[in-house]
């Protein structure tokens, strides 16, 4: 069996090489010619899997994307051609939650905000949104949810309108797929009119897909209203984001919100498990793939104040480092992809155990476990 895999998919050799010849290439450079006599194609979000890529794929029977997003894959074409497709739902959901929390504690300090009591709006209550909701509630925030698709499918699910979230939220964070068609299409769901509805000093976070926010409209808006705090992990026109917009936002990162070691390992292992089942092979064990975390435990001696929470979160993941690297590299040829390919090892909050030097309240323990840490009871 022959497999073509994106070179940015870690653990491919560990999982697939015992059963197949694996050729690793840059995801953006996969060509139709490379897919001749290939049985399986393993991609991440940068490879457009469409009719023109598959033009010479004479033997392809499996496509796996180690991502939750599927906007780069023509799934109906794969179905038509009898090619099995899988993605990796939820693989990086905890990592994106950590990213949002790291932004939140940073701006609470910079903007002198007490997080508890603020209102957060989550747009898209899927794998990420549903994990983020209890984390934000654990921090004492009132959380408004907008997901009209879920409301249609689950009558008991309460979805607020996007208008309500925009007008009432102090922090609004987007976790929807990129869709261009249908009544819930997300392309440019945020443009000038929506930006004008937001509280002037709100915090806007986009860690889903760049196209969900009209980047030109956002740039124009920020030129006249710089008091809106903006975090962009994703951009229109990746890997060449608008550099004027980059200079105007408060946190700029190169589509790495989901780039934890756990998220990447799980993405590959979920794809492997689907392929293994199809080929009647043993399933993977993600715990064997992951190295031990550098910071496996931290000890605290006091009830967690907002300042202490910030220190704990930043000790595991500090979004300022990614922002600083992006600003330092912006403008260099190929910098966006280079940063993603050479992303430093990052672990999730859940890989770190918080211990207590003195007994602390059960509320404090609930708070720490609620935001994602392991906590000794
Ligand atoms: N920046 C990153 O590194 C990164 C990492 C993971 C995911 N993502 C992006 O984030 C998106 C969400 O991730 P997920 O794992 O939660 O996906 P998911 O598919 O589990 O959830 C998406 C949710 O959005 C809802 N939705 C769809 N259209 C909507 C609309 N118009 N308004 C409100 N809700 C809507 C869906 O009903 C679903 O519940 C992915 O599709 C992907 O594009 C980015
Ligand atoms: O959709 C996702 O899961 C993420 O956006 C995606 O994984 C980002 O990383 P990439 O696939 O581009 O390496």
TrEMBL record:
Functional description taken from the UniProt entry: Catalyzes the oxidation of erythronate-4-phosphate to 3-hydroxy-2-oxo-4-phosphonooxybutanoate.
Domain annotation Caspase family p20: ranges: 199-212
SUPFAM superfamilies (UniProt xref): Formate/glycerate dehydrogenase catalytic domain-like (SSF52283), NAD(P)-binding Rossmann-fold domains (SSF51735)
Matching PROSITE patterns: CASPASE_P20, D_2_HYDROXYACID_DH_1
Binding site for substrate: 45, 67, 259
Domain of life: Bacteria
Catalytic activity: 4-phospho-D-erythronate + NAD(+) = (R)-3-hydroxy-2-oxo-4-phosphooxybutanoate + NADH + H(+)
EC number(s) recorded for this UniProt protein: 1.1.1.290
Pathway the protein acts in: Cofactor biosynthesis; pyridoxine 5'-phosphate biosynthesis; pyridoxine 5'-phosphate from D-erythrose 4-phosphate: step 2/5
Enzyme active site: 209, 238, 255
Name of the protein in its database record: Erythronate-4-phosphate dehydrogenase
Family: Belongs to the D-isomer specific 2-hydroxyacid dehydrogenase family. PdxB subfamily.
Alphabetized InterPro entries for the sequence: D-isomer_2-hydroxyacid_DH, D-isomer_DH_CS1, D-isomer_DH_NAD-bd, Erythronate-4-P_DHase, Erythronate-4-P_DHase_dimer, NAD(P)-bd_dom_sf, PdxB_dimer_sf, Pept_C14_p20
GO BP annotations, alphabetical order: proteolysis; pyridoxine biosynthetic process
Principal cellular location given in the protein's record: cytoplasm
Gene: pdxB
Organism encoding this protein: Echinimonas agarilytica
Location in or out of the cell: Cytoplasm
Binding site for NAD(+): 147, 233, 258
GO molecular function, one term: cysteine-type endopeptidase activity
Keywords: Cytoplasm, NAD, Oxidoreductase, Pyridoxine biosynthesis
């Amino acid at each position: 069996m022959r497999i073509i895999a994106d070179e940015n998919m870690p653990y491919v050799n560990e999982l697939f090489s015992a059963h197949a010849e694996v050729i690793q290439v840059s995801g953006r450079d996969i060509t139709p010619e490379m897919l001749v006599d290939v049985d399986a194609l393993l991609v991440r979000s940068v490879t457009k899997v469409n009719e023109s890529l598959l033009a010479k794929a004479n033997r392809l029977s499996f496509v796996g994307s180690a991502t939750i997003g599927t906007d780069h894959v023509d799934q109906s074409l794969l179905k038509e051609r009898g090619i099995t497709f899988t993605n990796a739902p939820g693989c990086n959901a905890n990592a994106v939650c950590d990213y949002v929390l790291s932004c939140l504690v940073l701006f609470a300090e910079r903007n002198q905000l007490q997080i508890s009591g603020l209102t957060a709006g989550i747009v898209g209550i899927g794998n990420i949104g549903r994990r983020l909701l209890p984390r934000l509630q654990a921090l004492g925030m009132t959380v408004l949810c907008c997901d009209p698709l879920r409301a249609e499918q689950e009558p008991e699910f309460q979805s607020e309108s996007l208008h309500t979230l925009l007008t009432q939220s102090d922090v609004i964070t987007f976790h929807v797929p990129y869709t261009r068609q249908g009544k819930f299409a997300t392309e440019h769901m945020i443009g000038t009119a929506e930006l004008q509805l937001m509280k002037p000093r709100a915090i806007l976070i986009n860690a889903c897909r760049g196209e969900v926010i009209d980047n030109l409209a956002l740039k124009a808006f920020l030129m006249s209203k710089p008091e809106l705090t903006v975090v962009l992990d994703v951009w229109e026109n990746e890997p060449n984001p608008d550099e004027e917009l980059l200079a105007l936002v408060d946190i700029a990162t190169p589509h790495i919100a989901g780039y934890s070691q756990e998220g990447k390992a799980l993405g590959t292992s979920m794809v492997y498990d689907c392929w293994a089942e199809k080929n009647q092979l043993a399933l993977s064990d993600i715990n064997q793939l992951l190295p031990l975390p550098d910071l496996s435990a931290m000890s605290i001696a006091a009830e967690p104040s907002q300042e202490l929470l910030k220190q704990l979160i930043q000790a595991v993941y500090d979004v300022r480092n990614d922002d600083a690297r992006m600003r330092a590299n912006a403008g260099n040829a190929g910098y966006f992809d280079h940063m993603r390919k050479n992303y430093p090892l990052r672990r999730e909050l859940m890989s770190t155990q918080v211990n207590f030097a003195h007994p602390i309240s059960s509320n404090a323990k609930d708070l720490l476990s609620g935001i994602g840490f392991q906590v000794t009871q």
